[in-house]
Design goal:
The chain has about 475 residues and is of the alpha+beta class. The protein folds into two domains: about 325 residues, Sandwich (Immunoglobulin-like), CATH 2.60.40; about 120 residues, Jelly Rolls (Sandwich). About 30% of the residues lie in helices and about 20% in strands. Strand 13 and strand 14 form a beta hairpin. Helix 2 crosses helix 5 and helix 2 crosses helix 7. It is globular, with a radius of gyration of 26 Å. The protein starts with a helix and ends with a strand. The relative contact order is 0.14.
């Protein structure tokens, strides 16, 4: 029988071995970062933050919508469509700058096992606009279906992941290829007025999603491994916590590296930003932790510069959304797009944004403003246009006594035109009086921004021949 002392010695050895292994693992984790200087780590952290913010921000929404059943924003599990038979209101807070013109339907795609087949119903009227937007985990809008692309007659389409190889099944009109395994699909269906809601509900009920095996009536493939989805940090924490990089590593494992980014990923790996790896900020030395935080601050300086360009009109929403090819891997512009995450590519919708008035002063509910469309100068669109109010800094819809969050072209018959046929909108916090409320867009008491939306813009809008009128301070 072993003596007590020998047992203690054995236990001591075991403790030392475990401690040694822990030290080695920690040293290995740290060495990947410590191999670079703090200056280089700061530069790479800045790049990785700019690159990764959209991926992390989109994952936050995906988790709320398709994973966390206890979240009040939960929509449906992956590969199941959920229809929202109403427009967005101030109670909807997961997505920044939501539109309130088109009831949404949402679909989160998990393409790891097999493709998903989408069926779209024909629209009930030729002038009803709808769109189906496909956004990958990188937040590139990689494809569209709908009025402007596939028409209003409906059809059957198939969405496939990065590893899929096969023939187009009979009855499928087109195959849509995603470079990531998870995809957010946003359906927008135009609502003309409150009485039109039942028609929209009927259309939404015709949107269908099914696995390819279900569509073909064949056996389903092997179920992929269950994912232990990481609980995301909050939108506020994305800006303050270095755990951001650990979440980025989690998301990257579902995003096969694009050939154009092979060198970039190798550079990120130098500081521990690597698909599927654990990034533990507590293992950073004080110097390296400071370098990462400085890199993040440098990234926000770049972001502020981009916002300034947007305010000055040097950068438009059309620069912030699109395919990978269109965006040309401009990661700062992609990050700026998270101000209105899941915004449309410009061919589908344009978003002139108002942050300041005609004198360059930031918009604020303490002031009264007017926005006038001269006769014949309404936004040129094939579908419709709108102007929506958002309070800052949250970029959410504004609660108000008349429950009006926007003014759009379907409302024109209820608005009061100027004597010359133009239209003047009144933008202020308090009512301009009952006789003028028809043209009133309520504002919050503090700072805000307004987004104009041009759905299916015409050539003169895309080419810059038409420009949005300026907001004027009403003295």
């Amino acid at each position: 029988m072993r003596t007590v002392s020998s047992k203690i010695r054995s236990l001591g050895v075991a403790v030392l071995v475990i401690a040694g292994l822990a030290y080695v693992l920690k040293a290995r984790t740290a060495s990947a970062v410590d191999a670079v200087s703090p200056a280089e780590a700061r530069a790479i952290a800045k790049e990785a933050y700019i690159y990764g913010y959209p991926l992390v921000d989109s994952y936050r929404v995906e988790y709320a919508y398709f994973v966390d059943r206890n979240n009040p924003e939960f929509k449906a599990p992956w590969n199941q469509i959920t229809n929202i038979p109403r427009v967005f209101t101030p109670a909807d807070v997961a997505v920044q700058t939501p539109n309130s013109d088109t009831p949404y339907s949402w679909l989160g795609l998990d393409l790891r096992a097999e493709p998903i087949v989408l069926t779209l119903p024909p629209m009930d009227r030729k002038d009803r606009y709808f769109s189906v937007q496909f956004t990958d985990a990188y937040t590139f809008n990689f494809d569209y279906l709908g009025t402007s692309t596939s028409g209003n007659k409906g059809g059957t389409f198939m969405v496939v992941g990065p590893d899929w190889k096969g023939d187009t099944p009979k009855g499928v009109q087109r195959v849509i290829h995603s470079e990531t395994e998870f995809v957010v699909v946003v359906f927008r269906t135009q609502l003309f007025n409150a009485a039109d809601l039942d028609n929209v509900k009927e259309i939404q009920s015709g949107y269908k999603a099914q696995t390819l095996s279900s569509y073909l009536g064949t056996s389903a493939p092997q179920v992929p491994p269950q994912i232990d989805f990481m609980k995301p940090i909050s939108a506020a924490e994305q800006k303050t916590l270095l755990e951001f990089f650990n979440e980025l590593n989690f998301v990257l494992q579902f995003c096969p590296t694009n050939p154009s980014e092979t060198d970039l990923m190798a550079r990120f790996a130098k500081i521990g930003v690597d698909a599927g790896k654990t990034f533990d900020p507590s293992k950073l030395t004080p110097e390296m932790k400071a370098a990462f935080e400085q890199g993040r601050a440098d990234a926000f300086t770049e972001f502020a510069g981009g916002v300034k360009q947007m305010t000055e009109g040097k950068l438009t929403s059309g620069d912030l959304f699109g395919t990978r090819e269109y965006m040309k891997n401009n990661y700062l512009n992609r990050w700026l797009g998270t101000i209105g995450i899941y915004g449309n590519s410009k061919q589908e919708a344009m978003y002139p944004i108002y942050y300041v008035d005609s004198s360059g002063q930031k918009l604020n509910g303490a002031n009264r403003y007017t926005l006038r469309f001269a006769p014949g100068q309404f936004p040129p669109v094939n579908a419709f246009w709108s102007l929506t109010m958002y309070e800052l800094p949250a970029s959410l819809l504004v609660a108000n006594p008349i429950n009006r969050y926007l003014i759009n072209s379907p409302m024109l018959p209820q608005l009061k035109l100027d004597p010359d046929g133009g239209l003047t909108l009144l933008i202020q916090n308090e009512s301009p009086g009952k006789d003028k409320e028809a043209n009133w867009l309520p504002a919050p008491k503090g700072p805000y921004a307004m987004y104009m939306r041009l759905y299916w813009p015409k050539k003169e809008a895309l080419d810059g021949e038409w420009t949005a009128p300026q907001v004027k301070h009403d003295q």
